[in-house]
Batch of 2 targets.
Target 1
Amino acid sequence: MWAHGKPFLPNLESQSHPCPHRHHSGGSVANMGAEEEGLPGKPCSLAQLRLCLWLSPFFVTGAAYFLLWIPQDQPSWVGALVKCLPVLCLAGSLQAARGGTGHRVLLQGALLCSAVGDACLIWPDAFLSGVAAFTVAHLLYLWAFGLTPLRPGFLLPIALVSVPYSGILLLHLPASMVPALAAYSLVLASMLWRGLASGGSIRGGALLFALSDVVLAWDTFVRPLPHARLVVMTTYYTAQLLITLSAFRSPQLKTH
């Protein structure tokens, strides 16, 4: 071997074989992981490439939804499929996650329930069925997020925003919808609390999911908002993506 232009011969008497788990001051833990996986230099590049490949159907179908922009006033099964496909693709991408199976299955269940809710909301007569499907989805998210760390400090700001908003919204609802929407608002607020407490990409996903629902409900029942559909669907798809990414905390993906 050569060092600075001069031949270098290792001292076999004083140098022992390096331990593969020993920390080198000049290298990062990530680089150590790369060496152990046989990926010199850039440990996460292969894992990130695989993740992008698994998520590519989501981005393609999401782009198709916005490009096709199927009118809201013409409900159809084609429109429902185009709307649901990005979320279904996220559920499929979770097969690449190497995290806990229970967490992954809960997220997949929540995504599937969300897809059912998306389809139901295409038809006005199925609105309450859509609310029920999303309620189950949020309950599954609650289960997946867990109760640790508890962080009760988030409850006050959530209550200060959600209670007045829900009060105004309920005044504009038909009486038949009040119980279902009140229950949904409580579950959504609980999901937001646990999402904020979880941190990471889940925190951003929970915030965007709540924002999407707030804009949708206000536009539907209180007052039409400009570009409401664009805001609702952009924040909704992004929220689902961020929550899904929480299952890929490990830099490694399944290769089989």
Target 2
Amino acid sequence: MRWLSRLLSHAAAAGRTSAVARSTSIHVSGGSHGFASGGWEGSPAVPREWLRKLWREELRKQKEAARALGAFARSYESVEAAGAATEAPSRSYQYDDRDLDPVEAKLAPLLARANLVIARDIEWANIMLAFEQESRYIIMDPLFPQSPVGFIREKSNIIFRQLLRTRRPFVAEITDAMGNEIFKVRRPFWLINSSIYAEVDGKEIGVVHKRWHLWRRIYDLYLGNRQFAVVENPGFWNWTFSLVDEDDKLLAQIDRNWRGIGFELFTDAGQYAVRFGDEGLSHKFALAADVEELHVARQLSLPERAVALALAISLDSDYFSRRGGWGLPFLIATE
């Protein structure tokens, strides 16, 4: 019987050792890989191979979602580009930047518009004291009149301004709304017939020559050595200046707008509408909705438009600038 009791004691000890071993294995695996082995005593173990498959499937779904999002983004960008191309005429741009040479590319941000409005600032020293100031102009797009698209700033000698007045020589910088120079116009001193030159980066691209006539206002416009337009205004009562070609076909138009009795009688603050034609505009709004459509024989090139803008500055200096010094009458007229 003694041998039987020893056998039973050995069997019990072996059972306790096996149970301790199983418990230790569960706790150790739960501590190092708790999620993979259940994480607590008695919980079912999760196969690692199944977790790897689940992770690979999740990665695959994420990649498919990323590819789908990229395809959507490309589709959205193409729709936006098509919309931009469709709405380009409403922004009044009439030229494709990809087809322009360096001179045209510099002129395009300002002059590739169907219409421009040029308004001269009030010169208070000229009004009150007859002190001639440098002329300042604001350039606006009638489609977006809330903010200017450019400026014109005269640079001239203070003594020449007082002595020579409208015959003074000057240089005017035409800039964009940020003050970056686009091109310049240069107007030398003159006695009988005035001339004004358009220059880009110091290189002359065109010129406007005035022809003397007793009552008519005649200007010849040149691009290089080639004349591309002429203006023959019938007289002082007419404020519309039409640019026509050699076949008398309309190319562009400059209108001097009436700004009210106070402005016209006592100031030089004129306003000009430079119209290059409305081809390519699907619809008009803002101030442009009130402007009658202008149909032209052909679109002026960007350098030709720069010369036309120089003509507007010359017209203002030749015919619509006057000596100031009105003082009190202006204040009464504007009240």
